[in-house]
Specification:
Helices cover 39% and strands 5% of the residues. It contains 15 helices and 5 strands. It has helices at residues 7-17, 29-40, 45-55, 59-66, 88-92, 95-106, 148-159, 175-182, 200-211, 228-245, 288-291, 306-314, 343-354, 368-380, 392-398, and strands spanning 80-85, 112-113, 119-124, 136-138, 141-143. The protein has a 5-stranded mixed β-sheet with strand order 2-3-1-4-5. Strand 2 (112-113) and strand 3 form a beta hairpin. Helix 1 packs antiparallel against helix 2 (29-40) and helix 6 runs parallel beside helix 7. The radius of gyration is 41 Å and the shape is extended.
C-alpha cells in the first residue's frame, strides 16, 4: 500500500483546492478522492488520510464520503471495471444472462477481481441507457446492445492487452486514467478523444426535433460558443448600454406647483411637489361579539416573545391580561367588574392545598385501607369470603 503520494499528486491536489473559495475548500473532497484513486487504483486508508490532511478534516469525515459513493473503490480494483446493468429493462432484455456468463467465464463474482488484476466485475442497478439495453460499461464507457457472446469477446480482448472500441464515447482507458479525468484533468493520451460518436437512438431524437422544428427559442446552431473572456466583455457592454439608456434624473424646480384649485401644492425640501397622501383605508366596523371585546383589535407589543404574549392574553387576571390584544376579553365577575389581581393566584393556591400530593409507593387518591386489605388477603391465600385458596392477584385486582 502506498503511504506517500507523489509530488505530481500533491501539486494536482493544490490545483483542485484552488478551484474553490477559501472558506469552501471542503467542496474539493470529491475530486480529491478521484485523484488518490488515480494513483493507487482505489481509495486506501492512506488516501483517506491524505485528503483529510490537505483539507483540514478528520479521517471519519473523509471516510463517510468515500463509503457513500460507489465510484470510490475501497479495495484494490482491476485496470478495467466491467459493469453490467441488471436492472428491470436490461434484465428483461438479457442483462442478467450477460452478467452470469461473465461471472462464470472470469471466475469472479460481484465486486471481485480476476487473478491477473485486469478486470473487476460488478452488476449495476442502472446505467441510464434503457434505449440501448442490455448495456455494460468498461470504466464507464458504453457497450450497447450486448449479449453473452459479445460481452465475453470484450473481456477477452481486454485481458489480451487490447482496447476494444466502445459503442459511444472516446477510446478506452484504464481505471486510473479515468480517475484522473474525473478529478478534473484532461486526458493527455494521443488521440484520446478522436474516436467515438453518438448512438442511433440519440440521433433519432435529434432528427425528429429537426423534422418538427423543435428547438429552444432563439437557438441558432451556427452561433459559436464564446469563451469566458468574450462572455464577460459582452456582459460589460450590455451593462454599460443599459446604464446609458436610463432616463436622466428630474431636476428640482423652484417654481411652486399649482394644485387643482389654483392654490400652491405643498412641496418638499427640494421644491418638488409631494403627492397627496390617500386617506387611510378603514374596513367595516367589526362586531363586538366577533372578538369578545368592544375594544378595537390592535397588534400585541412586539418587544415580547409570542409565547409570552399568548400566555398574557390567556391569563384570567386583570393585572396581567392584555385587554386590547386580538381576540381577548378580560373576564368579569358578572357585574362588569374585572377580578382583582390576586384572585387567580389565590384560587390556584386553594386548589393545590385541597389536593395533597401522593405519598411514597402509592398513587394519589388511592385509599390506604383498601390497599392493606388486598395485601392481607393475598398473604392469607384466601379469596374475599374465606372459602379457600384463590388467585390472590385476581382477588386483589377485583378489590
Amino acid at each position: 500500500m502506498t503511504t506517500t503520494f507523489t509530488d505530481e499528486t500533491r501539486e494536482r491536489a493544490r490545483d483542485i483546492i484552488a478551484r474553490y473559495p477559501a472558506d469552501r475548500s471542503r467542496s474539493a473532497l470529491l475530486p480529491l478522492l478521484h485523484l488518490v484513486q488515480a494513483e493507487e487504483g482505489y481509495v486506501s486508508p492512506a488516501g483517506v488520510a491524505f485528503c483529510a490532511e490537505v483539507l483540514g478534516l478528520n479521517k471519519a469525515q473523509v471516510g463517510a464520503v468515500a463509503t457513500f459513493y460507489t465510484m470510490y473503490k475501497r479495495k484494490p480494483t482491476g485496470d478495467f471495471l466491467v459493469s453490467v446493468c441488471t436492472n428491470t429493462m436490461c434484465n428483461v432484455l438479457g442483462g442478467q444472462e450477460v452478467y452470469d456468463t461473465l461471472a462464470e467465464h472470469l471466475g469472479v463474482g460481484h465486486d471481485e477481481t480476476t487473478a491477473d488484476g485486469t478486470i473487476t466485475l460488478e452488476h449495476a442497478e442502472c446505467l441510464a441507457a434503457c434505449d440501448y439495453g442490455p448495456v455494460m460499461t468498461v470504466n464507464y464507457d458504453f457497450f450497447d446492445g450486448v449479449d453473452a457472446s459479445t460481452a465475453v469477446g470484450v473481456v477477452d480482448e481486454l485481458r489480451a492487452g487490447g482496447r476494444p472500441m466502445p459503442t459511444r464515447g472516446a477510446r478506452l482507458c484504464t481505471l486510473k486514467e479515468m480517475a484522473v479525468q474525473l478529478a478534473g484533468f484532461a486526458d493527455e493520451r494521443d488521440g484520446a478523444v478522436a474516436d467515438g460518436g453518438p448512438g442511433e437512438p440519440t440521433l433519432r431524437g435529434l432528427r425528429l426535433a429537426q423534422q418538427h422544428n423543435v428547438s429552444v427559442p432563439g437557438f441558432d446552431p451556427n452561433t459559436p460558443i464564446r469563451s469566458k473572456a468574450e462572455a464577460d466583455k459582452a456582459a460589460a457592454e450590455a451593462k454599460a448600454k443599459a446604464e446609458a439608456a436610463k432616463p436622466a434624473p428630474v431636476e428640482a424646480s423652484a417654481a411652486p406647483v399649482k394644485g387643482g384649485d389654483g392654490a400652491s401644492a405643498p412641496t418638499g425640501a427640494a421644491g418638488v411637489a409631494e403627492p397627496a397622501k390617500p386617506a387611510e383605508a378603514t374596513g367595516p366596523a367589526k362586531p363586538a361579539d366577533a372578538s369578545g371585546s368592544t375594544t378595537r383589535d390592535v397588534k400585541a407589543p412586539d418587544d415580547k416573545s409570542p409565547q409570552v404574549r399568548t400566555a398574557e392574553t390567556r391569563q384570567p387576571d386583570a393585572g396581567t391580561a392584555v385587554p386590547d390584544a386580538p381576540g381577548t376579553k378580560v373576564p368579569t365577575d358578572g357585574t362588569g367588574t374585572a377580578p382583582e389581581a390576586g384572585d387567580a393566584r389565590a384560587a390556584e393556591a386553594a386548589g393545590v392545598a385541597a389536593n395533597a400530593p401522593a405519598g411514597d409507593g402509592k398513587p394519589a387518591g388511592d385509599e390506604a385501607g383498601a390497599q392493606e386489605r388486598n395485601l392481607t388477603e393475598a398473604k392469607a391465600g384466601t379469596d374475599a369470603d374465606g372459602t379457600g385458596p384463590a388467585d390472590a392477584n385476581e382477588t386483589g385486582a377485583q378489590k
